[in-house]
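Figure S4 source data
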Amino acid sequence: MAVRRVRWFVAVLLAVFSLTVLSFGQAKAAKKSSAKHPVVALETTMGTIKVELYSDKAPVTVKNFLDYVNSGFYDGTIIQRVDFVIQGGGYTENWMVKPTRPGIQNESKNGLKNSRYTISMARYDAPNSATSQFFINLNDNTHLDPPAGGWGYAVFGKVIEGMEVVDKIGKVKTATKSVQGTPFPNVPVQPIVLKSAKVVS
């Protein structure tokens, strides 16, 4: 009888141990999955750029960007500015402004810096005015980071593939273009089109 009780006790312990290990493994996997950063492929006429988005650091900005991506908003837009950044996401090939949703909360104080190859939101002077336009930093643009007590430009990801494409775009010839009487400086002479933007992982 005593032997049976010992065997039963050992069996119960093994079962509890197995369940604990299984639960721990599932929790670890869930944590890993939830911490995964989305990756978006920006296919341009000069090559494809893949950006990893930091949803843990800039949740509002990443959600906003992904909403535009998933709706097909960026498909067929142009890169309209190339100087110390590559900026796009607002104009069609014939320079029509695409209608956007309201501006979002500025998340520039998230600890991320406007260093080379990072992707950030473009905006107007008002801190919470970013909508669809974004830019990729060609240099370490520290002047775009928030000053003490002020607002900067929110970094929400970084280029992980296609740095050579970024560099190639950064070297294109630019000029000032007049659009309905408004001058736009640093516009690529040869149009660069963002053919598609898709979530790839």
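Figure S5 source data
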Amino acid sequence: MRAYFIQSGPRGTELEARDVPKPEAAPGKVVVRVRAAGLNRGEFIAGHGLVKPGAARAAGNEAAGEVEGTGEKVMGRAAGAFAEYAVMDAREAIPIPANLSFEQAASIPLTFMVVHDMIVEQGALKAGEWLLVTGISSGVGVAALQAAKAMGAKVVGTSGSASKLETLKKHGLDVAIQTRAPDFSQKVLQATDGKGANVVINTVGGSVFPECIRAMAFEGRLAIVGYVDGKLSAEIDLEAVHSKRLRIFGVSNKLRNAEQRAATVRGFRENFLPYFASGKITPLIDRTFDLKDLEKAKAYMESDAHVGKIVVRA
């Protein structure tokens, strides 16, 4: 079968198409005929730790398709998703709601399970509270907007693109702040009657971390999920963290075991899957490519022109 591999090199990450044997089922695993797979920015950025220097590894992390032998339509995390077939942990294979296409389903697993971790499991976002998302036009940012609105929260988002913010206003964005600089806290405070954001999602990195702290409300919660700016460190205002009783947490599956990852899936199925089945959330897909054009899809993601998810059809 045809499959893509990814390797971190001196010019960033590079893709290579190979012919490899079709994977075989194993205890606790299912083989899925991939119909669509989602792209995720972190996989394509050298230095994020998802693709370490050295030997190439199977590319792609989320897919939607049919289980071999049963035909059940499923979506979920799947190592090596940019291929004709991929393997999923059976505990993480999520039934696809009947109203979703394979492309829509493939755009859901990683982003929305990360968002569930951030705003439900750890962030405890409540209806009526304010969520701030830096870099809100990313896949995770858009998913956070959609999930938060479905939960009854209000959302502030930052982006350097006025057109992207206008697009997201149509999807419920309450307050749009056009900036790429760490200068948004005062506007967040103005929008929230001086209180600040209850939950903050930092998809940008260390360059805006201090400003996120300044934008937070009493007992606010700050999720660190990305660092597209390449800055992995920042100063911390300990007095603000102390006096405002702030919580700062990371969102990553790198060190979680299989059962911990499966627990995240159970939470997603209970809390978020009904939103998709009812149509309350419709995944926002920016563009779809054929799998043979994965290089073009990667280049499009790296151009930062998209709003929402990029998907490939297998």
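Residues 2-108+283-313 form a domain with the Quinone Oxidoreductase; Chain A, domain 1 fold (CATH 3.90.180.10). Residues 47-51 have pLDDT under 50 and may be disordered.
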